[in-house]
Write a structure and sequence with these properties.
The protein folds into two domains: 134 residues, no CATH class; 123 residues, no CATH class. 21% of the residues lie in helices and 26% in strands. The strands form five sheets. It has a five-stranded parallel β-sheet. Strands 10-9-8-7-13 form a five-stranded antiparallel β-sheet. It starts with a helix and ends with a helix.
Length: 280
């Protein structure tokens, strides 16, 4: 449906190929690999960024629609974070880094005072999918995504995409992009967050930070339901869940606006499809 409604009228062959990806009808049963066409394949991260974010390094920051219509997708949070940093460095303008205020929490919910203190640098280095980064670097005009429901009636919901218009000491001023509140101006305050998943860390801690992340790139799961004109897909680390590859490739409205990044000397990608689920 996205291909049919795209400005270029879509591509029948690409649409049929997408259906095969979704159904896993062309998979090698032993390896589970699919061939990625030459015209949408690259092995250069810089080429992928330049294709999706052409002109990102111009003197004038791109407009909001520019970021609304494009994104780079990856299966892992670590790859998304790495790509976001690379693209932010390409943007012109002064970069500002906000450090989080982190503190360890005791079992009763109080902050730790008598126990051996945990270095702040270590606390800020802890990453979780439910938390903003301990060191949040931003520039005027960069896209961000909201990680919490702050004011749903005003469009400030988990997953809302925004563009930074002003960086204050206590609040961020942003412009919402997409949805019913497209173009609305909002203020994002710092809030206290307690992660539900701290990985290998055995203690609980509280992080006070702006509940946002950079949104040049996002995980495939976060991109579900969105239609984009330009889609980049980082598959150097393969997908790992049913239907992820189909979800990523089908975000675009035209095959000419899709670019897939693979490792050197690779022309195939892993596709995970549980056919028994489709037949149920």
């Amino acid at each position: 449906m996205r291909l049919r409604n795209g400005n270029d009228g879509g591509d029948v062959d690409f649409a049929n190929w997408l259906l095969q990806v979704g159904h896993g009808s062309h998979l090698d049963d032993d390896a589970g690999e699919i061939y990625i066409p030459d015209d949408i394949r690259t092995t250069s991260p810089e080429d992928l960024i330049s294709f999706i974010y052409h002109g990102i390094d111009s003197e004038t920051p791109p407009d909001c629609d520019y970021f609304l219509n494009r994104s780079i997708l990856a299966a892992r949070n670590v790859d998304v974070a790495d790509t976001n940093v690379k693209i932010l460095q390409r943007m012109t303008g002064q970069e500002k880094t906000y450090l989080s205020a982190d503190s360890v929490i005791e079992e009763d919910g109080a902050e730790s005072a008598d126990s051996v203190p945990v270095p702040l640098e270590f606390l800020r280095s802890i990453n979780s999918s439910s938390l903003p980064p301990g060191e949040l670097s931003l520039k005027i005009g960069c896209p961000i995504i909201l990680l919490r429901n702050l004011a749903p009636s005003q469009g400030l919901c988990n997953g809302t995409r925004m563009v930074v218009t002003r960086m204050g000491e206590r609040v961020l001023q942003v412009r919402l992009i997409g949805g019913d509140h497209d173009g609305s101006i909002a203020l994002i305050p710092r809030i206290s967050l307690i992660p539900t998943d701290t990985g290998d860390v055995s203690f609980k801690f509280r992080r006070r930070q702006y509940p946002v992340r950079l949104a040049f790139a996002m995980t495939i799961n976060k991109a579900q339901g969105q239609s984009l004109k330009y889609v980049g897909l980082d598959l150097r680390a393969p997908v790992f869940a049913h239907g992820q590859l189909y979800v990523a490739l089908s975000r675009a409205t035209s095959p000419s606006r899709v670019k897939v990044l693979l490792s050197e000397n690779k022309c195939t990608a892993t596709n995970v499809v549980y056919k028994q689920v489709l037949l149920a």
